[in-house]
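Risk register update: the risk of archive-format incompatibility is retired. Evidence:
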Amino acid sequence: MASANPIARKQRRFWGIAATVVVTDAFTKMLAVDQLIAPHRPRGVIGDTVRLSLVYNSGAAFGLQLGMYSRWIFTALTVGALVLLAHLYRTTRAGDAVRTVALALVCGGAVGNLVDRLKSPSGVVDFIDVGIGALRWPTFNVADMAVSCGAVLLAFVLWREDARLAATLAATSGQDATVHG
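Archived output:
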């Protein structure tokens, strides 16, 4: 029975979440480009706190630029990160749902922004603008949210795994000392 197979569940969970992020990101960016015709002209959603404002980011997070080759440097870095994430996915136990979700969020978001980077020299479409008055967070998109949430979750999971491994090693070395002492 396929649903009882933990590997099949892991694959469905990962690919379902990653695909949902990519599709949702692409759809919302398409709407932003279509509906927010004038770039940098915000539309209030929740007063001035949450606004929609079309921005093209040719750099990386927070508008980081690396010169005229930023687009290609960030494309290469994204592909490299996806290779690393693929390795983490392959080494994820079939029953580790939280790690699988974290990896799916980061991968889906990375692919969403990678598609934009490859599609247009204008850069990644950002449109969610949050802040109070002049204090604004850099404009972002669904892919950015997925990467951020997934990265925080993945950091927590990896920290927890590291703490468990350290405790196991400490307990093992303590047992070795009593056996050999």
